[in-house]
Amino acid sequence: RKEVEQDPGPFNVPEGATVAFNCTYSNSASQSFFWYRQDCRKEPKLLMSVYSSGNEDGRFTAQLNRASQYISLLIRDSKLSDSATYLCVVNNYGQNFVFGPGTRLSVLP
Amino acid sequence: DVKVTQSSRYLVKRTGEKVFLECVQDMDHENMFWYRQDPGLGLRLIYFSYDVKMKEKGDIPEGYSVSREKKERFSLILESASTNQTSMYLCATWDRVGQPQHFGDGTRLSIL
CA B84 to CA B86: how far, in whole Å? Predict the structure, then answer.
């Protein structure tokens, strides 16, 4: 079993749709959690950190369920510019960061 | 804002050459990382450094070495480039637990 798993997609959704991505991790001692977005041929950029109580940033909502070892990202009112690959990243201990394979999103006009 | 600068966006080298990739950060972060990213394989850690002159092997260190003589600069060295090292190389920095990594723009390296 991989340490961090994501549905690779692609998710093809119309503009204005709500879309949710899931991520599961295997290490119960994992400490910190993040969502990054990566555009084609570009570097990953931090979208948001994920906190135990859940957090929201505009149209984006992240949730963490430590008991189920599960992280989610919800995007409301999708825009064309949201088309990208979304990476789930887990920090287990110290400098150990584990990246999921990414979920590809295409928002269609 | 953290600024992580990689020396080249695109680089073409020949098999057998010694290749240097440079990464510079301006935020005084202790930790710096080198990854490569390939289609279908995701990000894989090559080396990281937690202090000046300190380094640790990552998951795929073979064929690579690193240098950290100053806190702000972390260099990746391909001792004798081979075609299977054609990839996107990403440098990242990290401050402390609870904080995310910050990435440079990446270097697309082609070995011919």
Answer: 5
| Per-residue pLDDT tens digits for A28-39 | 999 999 999 999
Looking at CA atoms only, how far is residue B59 from chain A in angstroms?
Answer: 11
pLDDT in tens, A61-104: 999 999 999 999 999 999 999 999 999 999 988 888 999 999 99
Q: Which two tokens stand for residue A43?
A: 């570097």
Q: A102, A5 in Cβ contact below 8 A?
A: no
Q: Which of residues 47-66 of B touch A (CB under 8 A)?
A: 48, 50, 56
pLDDT in tens, B15-47: 999 999 999 999 999 999 999 999 988 899 999
* Contact residues on chain A for B94, CB-CB shorter than 8 A: 95, 97
Contact (CB<8Å) A99/B98:
no
Q: In which residue are the tokens 């990839």 written?
A: B87
**CB distance A38 to A89 below 8 Å:** no
Q: How far is CA B70 from CA B48, B49, B93, B96, in A?
A: 14, 11, 14, 19
